[in-house]
Fold:
Amino acid sequence: MASSLNRKSASLGSRKQPKATRAPKQKAARATKTKPTRSAPRTSSARATKARSNSRMGQTAGRSSRIIQPAAMAKNSRSFGAGQPSRTTRNINTSRTPQVSSVRIGDIERTKRTARVKRRYRRYLVFLGVIAALVSALAIGGVAVYNSSLFTIEEVNIKGVEHLTTEEMQALAGVPVGTTLLRVDAAGIKNSLLRDAWVEDVSVNRIFPNTLEISVTERSVAAIVEVPTQDAKSTQAWAIASDGMWLMPIPKAGTEAAARTSSTIYKDVEETLHIIDVPYGTEAEVGQYCSDANVNNALAVVDGLTTELADRVTSVKATDPESTTLTIKDGPDIVFGTAENIREKERVCLEIMDKHPDGVAYINVRTVDRPTWRAL
Structure:
């Protein structure tokens, strides 16, 4: 009985304790808030939690009030001295003020430029890929067409040939049967034709789908040279071009060789002037240039005449350069001499013949400033 009364009195006494003695218990309860005892009332724990939250709000309000007061910030900064940030400044820099990063305009432009370069590079790679694919396709297609029988040559057209026969041209060109326009050796055909003395120039053209055209530029006959034979008993007529190349020996009419020769050549023999009285020992060879000074001087004189006198020359005596003599139709023999001052010599000859309409038997213009003549 006594013990129960004591417990009751003790509990009543504890409820009537002064506030000074209640504070330590609140601190103890705050320290052990995670593990409240069963004997402590539940309301005291709630009160402690509310008190703590109120205290934190008060601290936060106090700090916020200190942050937004410019005057206080300035005062604090002055009190701490230059170079030392105040507590308020430290709070702003560390946890209370959000971090702000700055970006330069140049960095933005550089980023955009880098992006443009990358896009352009990607487009360039795509373009190169497309070109490579097209080139590969064309190469494969070209090889297939080249090795096929497409564009087989069915016709060969030869243009510009007068002194060479068809058989001679076919033998010179040598176009293989069954070859195509793509595989034909145009350079080989050209070189083969150029080996002939008559051919001065040639071009080989492909005309699709199946025609090969050969255009030939022939040398023209400048004169027929009567070259003495080795036994000196006769002469052999040779066609010679204006550049001094020996073209061919002229077969005598009626022979088998003449039957294989173009008729145009014999026409040239009749219409072209002849170089006669050529010294013995002059040699002629097809495709070679003439090395005889007498013949070359006679060719230079004939080639240099430009007036009506050129059309009247029928033959040239090429005994030696100083005594080169022109025989003209319906006119006198003219001792022309070397191929120097051709225009002046030609003018003097025409003046002498005009002054003697009855005819002149002989003219010598080897020394053009002292010409001589003999009238009929």
